[in-house]
Amino acid sequence: MWRAAGVSPAAAHPDVRHNPPKSMKKKQQRKNSYRCRKVPRSCPSGVKDLGGRPRGSLKRFPFVETRLGFMLRYEVPAVYDLIVRLSPPSRRQCPYPTLVEAVCAASTDPVLRKPKFRRYMDEYIRDGVYCRRGKRLTPERARYYERLRERRLEEYILEHWDEIELRRRGFELP
């Protein structure tokens, strides 16, 4: 209709623009130049993606729920209590790896010489309190680890009874 009359659509309607202004082009270029950091996840066909954390990523847990913290709390309770006391209040949930390593190196407990402990310590140095899955205390684990913890505390107290008595009376150890 307009072509027959020899009038262009832009002339007929002044609001219609063929070329966007330069500022819009820059915005579009800037928006498209950002790097996408999301990890693409493949979903089986017909299954809705429910979202959540990407598979293989790490989640933050309290120190007690990491493998090292769980082991220390239930297998070496005296060392765990010492680590918690020596940690500053702001770092109780995630004590410094150097502090944990120093306290464990000073201990004479044979549990801390196992390869399992070294493996957990290396993991804690590398990832901190971030892990794929926290180790929670289930009712089955609770029965086993509470008995183990009580037995280890009793053994520790009996081994160091003389030192404990001297400290209760106010004497310093040589």
Helical content class: 40-55%
Note the gap between the termini. 107 Å
Shape: elongated
The low-confidence runs, each spanning 5 or more residues with pLDDT under 50, are none
Biggest beta sheet summary: 2 strands, antiparallel
> Helix tally?
9
Structural class: mainly alpha
| Mean pLDDT over the residues | 80
Order of adjacent strands in the largest pleated sheet: 1-2
Please state roughly what percent of the residues sit in beta strands, choosing from under 5%, 5-15%, 15-25%, 25-35%, 35-45% or over 45%: under 5%
Instruction: From the alpha carbons, calculate the radius of gyration and give it in angstroms.
Output: 31 Å
Q: What's the helix-strand series?
A: HHHEHHHHEHH
Strands, helices and their partners?
Elements: H1 2-5, H2 9-12, H3 22-32, E1 59-60, H4 67-75, H5 77-86, H6 97-106, H7 115-127, E2 130-131, H8 139-159, H9 161-169
Antiparallel strand pairs: 1-2
Helix pairs in contact: 4-5, 5-6
How would you characterize this protein structure?
With 174 residues, this protein is an all-alpha fold. The chain has a domain at 59-169. 52% of the residues lie in helices and 2% in strands. The chain has nine helices and two strands; from the N terminus they run αααβααααβαα. Helix 4 (67-75) packs across helix 5 and helix 5 packs across helix 6 (97-106). The N and C termini lie far apart (107 Å). 13% of the residues are buried.
